[in-house]
Design a protein that fits this description.
It contains four helices and five strands. The protein has 175 residues and is α+β, with helices and mostly antiparallel strands. The protein has a five-stranded mixed β-sheet with strand order 4-1-2-3-5. Strand 2 (23-33) and strand 3 (36-46) form a beta hairpin.
Length: 175
């Protein structure tokens, strides 16, 4: 079974809007596996930052699905983040939302998708970096995330809600 590490960096690019409480933000997930590293990114405008972590985790996990879900093999996945308590915050937000729905539908879907993916991959709680190599990779993901935060400010309209754009960064690109 393959071991995969997801280095997750997510954050806001601006303070919440006075009108609707939304803010432009970005995420980057650096996925390290035996085959090398892949980088997934997204720019958004969201009210709830726990949804941003859900979108990020979903972006990093979706490409890891085995060809045949019945036979696998399912990789062992570890999530490494600067704020490793985000999984607990996602769970709390998801429970609150189930009781009193008030968030945007795409954010509710992100939480549900994250819960499903965490169960399928049997992912333990996220953790902080423990080795110099892990710290280096998380710093790299954070540097990419900060670049995408600037992109969010330039591209995401101030009246939009949700993920504006996402994709995979070709390593060697510097945008």
């Amino acid at each position: 079974m393959e071991n995969i590490e997801l280095y997750l960096a997510a954050g806001e690019a601006e303070k919440p809007s006075r009108e609707d409480g939304h803010r432009r933000c970005s995420f980057v997930v650096l996925v390290k596996s035996v085959g090398g590293c892949r980088v997934f990114w997204g720019v958004a405008r969201l009210k709830d930052m726990t949804a941003l972590f859900s979108f990020a985790l979903n972006a990093g996990l979706a490409p890891l699905f085995p060809e045949d879900l019945d036979t696998g093999p399912w990789p062992k996945v570890e999530v490494i983040a600067k704020s490793p308590d985000f999984g607990e915050r996602i769970d709390q937000a998801s429970r609150r939302e189930a009781e009193k729905p008030k968030k945007m539908a795409d954010q509710r879907k992100a939480w549900k998708d994250t819960a499903t993916l965490r169960a399928l991959f049997n992912i333990p709680p996220a953790r902080a970096p423990e080795t110099p190599d892990e710290e280096r990779l998380l710093r790299k993901a954070t540097a990419f995330q900060q670049k995408y935060a600037q992109r969010a400010l330039l591209e995401v309209p101030s009246d939009f809600s949700g993920v504006w754009a996402d994709g995979e960064l070709e390593l060697g690109e510097e945008n």
